[in-house]
Amino acid sequence: NICSHGRDSARAESWIKQMLKEGIKPSCVTFGSVIDACAKLGRLAEAEDWVARMKDYGFEPDRVIYNTLLNACSKAEDGEKAQHWLQEMLKHGIKPNEKAYNSLIHVHGRSGHLEQAEKWFHAMGASGCPADVISYSSMIFASARFGNLDRAEAWMQEMLNAGLDANVICYNTLLHACARQGDHIRGVYWM
User: Fold this and answer.
1) What is the separation of C-alpha 170 from the centre of its chain, rounded to a whole number of angstroms?
2) What integer pLDDT is reported at residue 92 of this predicted model?
3) For the segment 66-117, what is each residue's pLDDT rounded down to a tens digit?
4) For the segment 1-47, what is each residue's pLDDT rounded down to a tens digit?
5) What is the pLDDT of residues 137-169, one digit of tens each?
6) DSSP per residue, the chain
């Protein structure tokens, strides 16, 4: 787990290989640590490979593993893979939580697929999973990044109307978008 937090997937992998060499069967947590290390580095293919190895040892991914894979998809900016892993999660009877939906919202928003990001934002709510500041922040960022300041402001207002407190990321995103468009009056409003 220390290797995972230190983002040293090669070192984490070497520990598992050493365990196997000495005849010690890795646990689900052991595999999860390596998968997490790969995910934090955006090495999606390696994370998926370790999930396959984990299954070979008789362990099925749980919500934590699926969320880790979704995070890896987000870092790799691979929306299709993210949707695949969410479908796998559902197929195995695991209900996605905020982290799962936020990864999908983020990956699609970051890559400019705003309609897909909005689809997953609304699917999140429809599933009974309330949107949080991270969900809204991703929508604000995506809208602002791709030049839709009006939509970014609408997401911010929706978040505030939902009773959530905007964080510094939300405000900075809007201020940066206002500055890029040269709209200082709107920027002052969000200060």
Assistant:
1) 17
2) 95
3) 999 999 999 888 999 999 999 999 999 999 999 999 999 999 999 889 999 9
4) 434 444 556 676 777 778 888 988 888 888 888 888 888 888 899 89
5) 999 999 999 889 999 999 999 999 999 999 999
6) -HHHHTT-HHHHHHHHHHHHHTTPPP-HHHHHHHHHHHHHTT-HHHHHHHHHHHHHTTPPP-HHHHHHHHHHHHHTT-HHHHHHHHHHHHHTTPPP-HHHHHHHHHHHHHTT-HHHHHHHHHHHHHTT----HHHHHHHHHHHHHTT-HHHHHHHHHHHHHTTPPP-HHHHHHHHHHHHHTT-HHHHHHT-
* Type of residue at 97: N
Contact present, 107 and 74 (Cβ < 8 Å): yes
| The token pair that represents 181 in the structure block | 């468009």
| Spatial separation of the C-alpha atoms in residues 90 and 135, rounded to whole Å | 20
Distance of CA 37 to the CA centre of its chain: 15
Q: Residue 59: what residue type?
A: F
Asked if 86 and 96 touch (Cβ cutoff 8 Å), the reply is yes
